[in-house]
Amino acid sequence: xxxxxxxxxxxDQTREFGVALGRAAQAGDILLLDGxxxxxxxxxxxxxxLGLDVTEYVSSPSFIMINEHxxxxxxxxxxxxxxxxxLDPETLAQLEEELGGDAIGAVEWPGLLPAELRARSTELRxxxxxxxxxxxxxxxxxxxxxxxxRDAGAHDGPGDTHG
Length: 163
Ligand SMILES: Nc1ncnc2c1ncn2[C@@H]1O[C@H](COP(=O)(O)OP(=O)(O)O)[C@@H](O)[C@H]1O
Ligand SMILES: [Mg+2]
What we know:
Elements: E1 2-8, H1 11-24, E2 30-34, H2 41-51, E3 66-70, E4 74-79, H3 89-98, E5 103-108, H4 115-119, E6 122-128, E7 134-140, H5 143-151, E8 155-156
Parallel strand pairs: 2-5, 2-6, 4-5
Antiparallel strand pairs: 1-7, 1-8, 3-4, 6-7
Helix pairs in contact: 1-2, 1-5
Bound molecules: adenosine-5'-diphosphate (ADP) and magnesium ion.
């Protein structure tokens, strides 16, 4: 597992970090976006979409849970905020089917996903430091996304195992 960290001091910087990941993303990659309201999860996914050559505007899918965008690869943007306690088995089966495969998955509020799915995903945890500063902690089993994050300025984070 690669553990990296970067700091963003503007929305544009967070978006650009997403662009770098989007350019490097390969079919089947799943990105989990963790962090409180307003931490920049959707901003980062907007960058991810740009990096995947999605040309339409990416809004928050909060009210419909899954949005699809077509770029270099299909981007499946999921927001589980409205899912209260647990994912019912049908929804979970649908998500398992939609994420990965030939698409890139990006999931906001991923806390209810099963551990097995989380373990093969790239986790991006955004922590607000002040009004405009965000620490972005990356944990990924993916060499190409770790390399892209490094190229975009991320450095070793706490607990990196160089694995
Ligand atoms: N460094 C930063 N990175 C991302 N967003 C930032 C940053 N600084 C300020 N912001 C603001 O924080 C808000 C993040 O919104 P959004 O991406 O919708 O959050 P979330 O999806 O995590 O709820 C936006 O209004 C954005 O302009
Ligand atoms: Mg959001």
